[in-house]
Specification:
This protein is an alpha/beta fold. It folds into two domains: 205 residues, NAD(P)-binding Rossmann-like Domain (Rossmann fold); 90 residues, UDP-galactose 4-epimerase, domain 1 (Alpha-Beta Complex). Helices cover 42% and strands 16% of the residues. The chain has eleven helices and 13 strands. The strands form four sheets. A seven-stranded parallel β-sheet has the order 3-2-1-4-5-6-11, sandwiched between helices. Strands 7-10 form a two-stranded parallel sheet. α7 runs parallel beside α9, α7 packs across α11 and α9 packs across α11. The termini are far apart. The mean pLDDT is 97. The structure holds NADPH dihydro-nicotinamide-adenine-dinucleotide phosphate and guanosine-5'-diphosphate-rhamnose. NADPH dihydro-nicotinamide-adenine-dinucleotide phosphate (NDP) binds next to α1 and β5. Guanosine-5'-diphosphate-rhamnose binds next to α4 and α7.
């Protein structure tokens, strides 16, 4: 029997890699997309064959996390075996400007979809995209037992969703797993996030654009991994015998400044000539240091990171250079 998966947030960085992975594994994949005035399915462009085939293996459905009745209808219609709940307002800085909206989408969105599953008595496994932002100010290294101390409306909303997910597991005996993922990046990362913002700027400067790169806090420490490998961990969590919560991280620590230096260095550029400070990129409260201990995932799921930060920087700069140069030659 072909397994069916439903991915919320399929148009995002992780959703697109997860769709690739599940299609490779033979799943029938359903994704929830939002109506937008211009196309928002660019990250799925390479999957057009699966989408447009006579018997499509990828199906896209309009829906929104704020629209509970639509979620019920979709779950009832699709009857997925596995639900990967990735959709969220995922921008930490923006969550300070739109805390209520972030709470509604990123927090309550999880309750809406879990409650929809419960109400229609759907027998499925559920993945919740939890985040290292929930650890906030808790000192590193952070693991599953580390107390949560979120530092933004986004982190607080994810913390609420994490506990709701755990409660549905305990109260209703549902198969619910929280993946507590540390920052993971790729050439498909949105350009508002710091890594892609840097690699895109490096590529433009290398290609001859006359521009500067305006940045906020260069001192924060992050544990950056490769998104393509992190979606494998999501799948592994839903194949386990018992549902549980897992930290997914590389265990390595770099500052934002390290990332800047390596990215400019990879292109043979001196970062100090191009990088400038702008306080609009600062947050009212910052998360200073996130370094994950993913030993539980290694032991129980057999998951280990392969691509570490220096290689990740290189592959992201190379991908952006290729795109920028192709655009220039059009
Ligand atoms: P992205 O921001 O790239 O993607 C977010 C997705 O959610 C997009 O598909 C977006 O749709 C969708 N979405 C946003 N709001 C709604 C809504 N109201 N209704 C339906 N869909 C909506 O995030 P990532 O792929 O990077 O992350 C995936 C998940 O993992 C998110 O929940 C994020 O918070 C979490 N996470 C991410 C980490 C990371 O380092 N990347 C680390 C830890 C957790 P659209 O394309 O239309 O905007
Ligand atoms: P983060 O990622 O907040 O960790 O959340 P982001 O890349 O936005 O910031 C990382 C660090 O870089 C600092 N920073 C800047 N950040 C941005 N975006 N732009 C800048 O110009 C800039 N200058 C410095 C930030 O202050 C921060 O310390 C990401 C998201 O994907 C969340 O959804 C996810 O849950 C967490 O990672 C884990």
């Amino acid at each position: 029997m072909t397994k069916k998966a439903l991915i919320t947030g399929v148009t995002g960085q992780d959703g697109s890699y997860l769709a690739d992975l599940l299609l490779d594994k033979g799943y029938e994949v359903h994704g929830v997309i939002r109506r937008a005035s211009i196309s928002n399915i660019g990250r799925l462009a390479h999957l057009s064959a699966a989408l447009d085939a006579e018997e499509p293996r990828l199906h896209l459905h309009y829906g929104d996390l704020t629209d509970g009745s639509r979620l019920i209808a979709l779950l009832q219609q699709i009857q997925p075996d596995e639900v990967y709940h990735l959709a969220a307002q995922s921008d930490v800085r923006l969550s300070f400007d739109q805390p209520e909206f972030t709470g509604d989408v990123t927090g309550m969105g999880t309750t809406r979809i879990l409650e929809a599953i419960r109400l229609i008595k759907l027998d499925c496994r559920f993945y919740q995209a939890s985040s290292s932002e929930m650890f906030g100010s808790a000192p590193p290294p952070q693991k599953e037992s580390t107390p949560l101390w979120p530092r933004s409306p986004y982190g607080a909303a994810k913390t609420y969703a994490y506990w709701v997910a755990r409660n549905y597991r305990e109260a209703h005996s549902m198969f619910v797993a929280n993946g507590i993922l540390f920052n993971h990046e790729s050439p498909r990362r949105g350009k508002a996030f710091v890594t892609r913002k840097i690699t895109h700027a490096v590529a433009q400067i290398k290609a001859g654009y006359d521009r500067k790169l305006y940045m906020g806090n260069l001192d924060s420490v992050r544990d950056w991994g490769y998104a393509k490998e992190y979606v494998e961990a999501m799948w592994l969590m839903l194949q386990a015998d018992e549902p549980s919560d897992y930290v997914i991280a590389t265990g390595t620590a770099y500052t934002v400044k390290d990332f800047v230096e390596q990215a400019f260095g990879h292109a043979g550029l001196d970062w100090q000539k191009y990088v400038r400070f702008n306080d609009r990129y600062l947050r009212p409260t910052e998360v200073d240091s996130l370094i994950g201990d993913a030993s539980k995932a290694a032991v129980e799921l057999g998951w280990k990171p392969k691509t570490l930060m220096p290689e990740l920087v290189s592959l992201m700069v190379e991908a952006d250079l290729k795109t920028v140069l192709a655009q220039l030659s059009e």
